[in-house]
Amino acid sequence: METGHSHLLHTAARNHRLGMLGLGTLLALIAIGLEFSALRFDLFRSDVAAYWQDSLNWRAPYHTFHVPGYALLIAALRGITSNTFPPLLYMIFVTSVSLLLSMYVIYRTSRLFVGPDHPVTIIMPFLLAFWPLAGLYAVIYPIADYLVIALFLLGIFLFMRNQPLLGSLAWAGAVITHKAIWPFIAFSFLAWGFWQRRQFSWKWLLYPLIILSPLVVIWIGGASYHHDWKWILSSNLNEIKDNKLWYPFHGILESFAVGDAASLLKGTVTTGYGLLAAFLLWYLFTRKPKYYLFGCAVAISALIMAMSLNEGLTWGFVRFGRLLVLPLGLVIAHRYTQQTLQPRKWLKAAGVATAVLCVISQFVYTYYIGKIYFQ
């Protein structure tokens, strides 16, 4: 009887913490929406406007810069609702649901690392939502980030649970939602294959086919539409041509070379995330906790992204740096299980201070987007 009662109390406490996190996230989103409004920032611009236009052109989903997953989902919602609502409402609905799904999936993933009542199960969804600087703004300024992050995290969670068929279906959606996720999926699939190598089966060849099949269909259709087999990478190839001299991390280094305050901030933040990815990779590879291969795959993909982006696109590394929450959660969980992280007062104080700074950074980045980035 006591055991059952204790279990109910633990469950109630866990649900309360998750509920408070959800409520806090909702309030922060409302505040960010109000901040954008106070800044007189037009949300319907740049990529947001482009995604909407792509949803109107859903019969020919062959944009050379964006893959069409997000736009096709918007088009489906428009069709279901007879195009009743304004564009931003459809798009913010998708990004909001994607954020909630991402937080739930990373919570479930954290329970694979530690027990259900462990602090890591709250830390990971909190960090995913309030990732320093580039956390919540992408919900209110509704770009495709959280949709593709939700699909990627769902896929990697299913592969961790050794459900590769369902995981492949999730990743099939991700590959046609954002190009930036491609290396994350490739390295994560390789990580799963190495993890399960002793159970190798020829049916594994089916999983890459499932993952890539929608992208191949889009690619073939676009090749006919554009009369160019390279169309899906044409914008990326043009960026490479524009950068006549390439060297690793050139985007970060050029940010420092530009020298203005915004560029120096960008260079500093992206350098910090690059160092974090390198540290997480080193820690996981040397300590080898369970699931470490998946964390290494994410860290390697993040470093490749940091190395390859030009100066104008380096904030993309910060945005997708949110995925470092997975290897970071692995490291924190491992430290706890090795009893090298004890619940001391200074550690709790540091955690609270970090959480406060994460929340404040959401509004700093919103101001940056609203007042500086598009100027």
Give the SSE layout.
Layout: H1 2-38, H2 46-56, H3 69-80, H4 87-113, H5 120-129, H6 137-140, H7 145-160, H8 164-175, H9 182-195, H10 206-226, H11 234-242, H12 250-258, H13 261-287, H14 292-308, H15 315-320, H16 325-337, H17 345-373
Helix pairs in contact: 1-5, 1-17, 2-3, 4-5, 4-7, 4-16, 5-16, 7-8, 7-9, 8-10, 9-14, 12-13, 13-14, 13-16, 14-16
Protein described:
The chain contains 17 helices and no strands. It is mainly α and 375 residues long. The longest helix has 37 residues, at 2-38. The N and C termini lie far apart (64 Å).
- Derived from helix and strand composition plus strand pairing, the structural class reads mainly alpha
Overall mean confidence score, pLDDT: 89
> Which residues sit in consecutive blocks of at least 5 with pLDDT less than 50?
none
| Spatial separation of the terminal alpha carbons | 64 Å
| Multimerization status | single chain
